[in-house]
Amino acid sequence: MKSFKSGTYINQGTYKSFQPAHINRQWVLDDMEIQKLLGQADRELGRLDMYSEYIPNIDMFIQMHVLKEATQSTKIEGTQTNMEEALLDKDSVPINKRDDWEEVQNYIAAMNQSKTELEKIPFSSRLIKEAHKVLLKGVRGKHKLPGEFRQSQNWIGGATINDAAFVPPVHSTVNEYMSDLEKFVHNEEQPFPEILKIAIVHYQFETIHPFLDGNGRVGRLMITLYLVSKGILKQPILYLSDFFERNRQLYYDNLTRVREKNDIKQWFKFFLVGVIETAQNGIKTFDNILKLQKETEAKIQTLGSRAGNAQKLLNILYKHPMIEPIVVINEIGISAASAYKLIADFEKLGILKEVTGGKRGKLYLFKTYVDLYK
């Protein structure tokens, strides 16, 4: 780590591009402070991963983790969609907010597709490109080569490339760099702790900036996919975008510090603290979910003969905590009158809250559950 050299700036006339050093090489962990943080991160990830073992139907809750990740990751890029808005159907979203809403939905779709793809293909450029294609489908970046590495120079910050805050490597070297990144991911001959490997991979990916748009979102999505692909997590339940969003300037500053001062240690420290805090918050959230689950199921047992359908509705709400009556009718297979009665019961029990205030097109929110993710 002490001998780390991030790369070199290349004079391109009116600007300088940055050509990072390759990462597929022998890395030596020679810093006790990083080793201590790494040990703590390993322990917290192990504790978090245990929830995959003993929470029944954990898939019900993972979708809300993905939803939170999607809103926070896209927020870093400037969108304004919150979790409640992300839960709405497109027709219920104000027209002036639909672009942001669609970017969040694409992020969710990209994560879900990538999770499925990992069962068939390894963590790779192919997986990353497929995620990128979904991410940009039909949104503001749809004309910027979705699913393809860039074939021209891009830059970060500044009105033009001449006053850019950072200019990534020239486009002709992107494939070479991504090939090196992929080899590093699968390099088992020169072992290095997986949490630090994904920290390096994330830094290198953001430095390469291989796409014309969506690099930040794909780079953050990759962190969770990597941990699952390496068996660190059995389920995708760790998402760092909330930490990055709350510490946005530090996030950018620490990435820049690696390039300008060869300070990979500070980036490792920041990343590991993010893993530790995020895992601890995830553990707290799951504990609160289990507590809420117990309390809520006790409430619906008071409904007597309707308790069976009430349990079905509750299971739906854990996946989709914003609901309208037609969904209850169709998903549970009951009459409109029974559905409205069941919703009214849930309102009286304090489980659901009507959020539109209108007489028609009513929407109901499982607010206490959504609030656990904030």
**What is the end-to-end distance?**
36 Å
Which H/E pattern describes the elements? EEHHHHHHHHHHHHEHHEEH
Rg, alpha carbons:
23 Å
Instruction: Give the low-confidence spans.
Output: none
Number of discrete domains: 2
Give the CATH architecture of the largest domain: Orthogonal Bundle
Q: Give the averaged pLDDT, no decimals.
A: 94
Number of strands: 5
Number of helices, where a helix is a run of at least 4 consecutive DSSP H or I residues: 15
Q: Structural class, from helix and strand content?
A: mainly alpha
Give the proportion of residues in helices.
Answer: 55-70%
The CATH top-level class label of the largest domain: Mainly Alpha
Portion in beta strands: under 5%
Give a structural overview:
The chain is mostly helical and 374 residues long. The chain has two domains: 7-21 and 30-285, Fido-like domain (Fic-like fold), CATH 1.10.3290.10; 294-373, Arc Repressor Mutant, subunit A (Orthogonal Bundle), CATH 1.10.10.10. 57% of the residues lie in helices and 4% in strands. Strands 3-5-4 form a three-stranded antiparallel sheet. Strands 1-2 form a two-stranded antiparallel sheet. A hairpin with a 4-residue loop joins β1 (7-11) and β2. It starts with 6 loop residues before the first strand and ends with a helix.
